[in-house]
Design goal:
The protein is of the alpha/beta class. It has a single domain, classed as Rossmann fold (3-Layer(aba) Sandwich), CATH 3.40.50.1820. 37% of the residues lie in helices and 14% in strands. The chain has a four-stranded parallel β-sheet, covered by helices on one side. The radius of gyration is 16 Å and the shape is globular. InterPro entries: AB_hydrolase_fold, Peptidase_S9_cat.
């Protein structure tokens, strides 16, 4: 952003995160068996993809107040659009799919993460509803027994 070349995109952000992980995993002063990825909100979506794609480099994942998908968040932030996009976790119409350049569907990725996952859900988060974290946990825990869910005020 700022004075950078190009445009921000889901693909570009994932590539940047991968480059950072690759650099970190090559450092000799880092115990590469203990790399843990932490992500909050959009960072949780990035962290989920990074962790899924790097089972040999990432030991665990920590998610804090991460959304299920951008489309679900659109329904939260712009409630009048809910009838167009469906609510979180529903099979409602996804008419806006073609409008969203970066879908960031964490709910579609989280079940593929094999490493341990710690879910931190702030009940007073003003952006991401706790229900998003509950849905992510349920999806992950159905396939990965190494999941822990913690709610805090």
């Amino acid at each position: 952003y700022g004075a950078s070349d190009g445009y921000p995109s889901q693909h570009g952000i994932i590539n940047d995160a991968q480059a950072a992980l690759d650099h970190l995993s090559q450092r000799t002063d880092i115990d590469t068996d203990r790399i843990v990825v932490f992500g909050r909100s959009l960072g949780g979506a990035v962290g989920s993809v990074l962790t899924k794609n790097n089972p040999d480099k990432v030991a665990a994942l920590i998610l804090e107040n991460t959304f299920t998908s951008i489309l679900d968040m659109a329904g939260v932030l712009l409630p009048f659009l809910k009838w167009v996009i469906g609510g979180p976790g529903t099979k409602g119409p996804k008419i806006l799919n073609f409008l969203v350049r970066s879908p960031w569907s964490t709910i579609d990725i989280i079940g593929q993460v094999k490493q341990p996952i710690l879910f931190l859900s702030g009940l007073q988060d003003e952006m991401v509803p706790p229900s998003h974290m509950q849905m992510l946990y349920a999806k992950a825990a159905a396939r990965n027994r190494q999941c822990v869910f913690v709610e805090f005020p």
